[in-house]
Structure formats: structure tokens, C-alpha cells
Amino acid sequence: MTFRRKLLTKAVLLVLIIAVLGWIVMTLWNWILPTLVVGAHALDYPRAIGLLVLCRILFGGFRGHGGWHRRKQWEHWQRMTPQEREQLRNEPPSASRPNEGIGA
């Protein structure tokens, strides 16, 4: 399969997933909220998509998953000896260290 075809397939799949999630949000909102909250109105499809995006921004962000990187860090932490862990805790963050060996 060519790169363009894979990219197109992923794009179509992403649009389909967003459409289905928007429909689920709209259906759940219209099923639950108007009966529980006085004055709550039914939600139309574009507003359901907007609510989905708003919730993603507020609660999930758009920073990616990062799960693989965190798991590798955890595995590295588990392999460290207690002395290495203590040394890592006590050393200053790399951004505050002077550049060693650069320009010398």
C-alpha cells in the first residue's frame, strides 16, 4: 500500500471516528440532560462536535498520547539501583546546568 493511500485511509478513519463520537455525545446529551436539568436544551450535531472539541481541549489537550515514552521512562526507572535513583533525584535539572565543554 502506498504512503498516500495509507494517509487517506487514516484521514477517512479519523473523520469517521469524530463523526461517530459527535453523534454519541449528541445522543447522550439529548437523552439525559433535558430530563435532569431544568432549562437544558437539546443539542444539535454541530454543537455536539464543538462540545467534543471543547472537552478535548479542556481535559485532554492536543499534546498526543505520549504513553510509549512514559512507559520507557518507567521501565528505565525500575532498572535503576537505589543509588542511581537517589543521584538522579539530587542532581539539578538539565536546563539549569551550565553548558559544560561548549565554547571552552
From TrEMBL:
Entry's transmembrane regions: 12-33, 45-62
Sequence segments annotated as region (Disordered): 81-104
Keywords, comma-separated and alphabetical: Membrane, Transmembrane, Transmembrane helix
The protein's name in its UniProt record: Uncharacterized protein
Organism expressing this protein natively: Paraburkholderia susongensis
Lineage: Bacteria, Pseudomonadati, Pseudomonadota, Betaproteobacteria, Burkholderiales
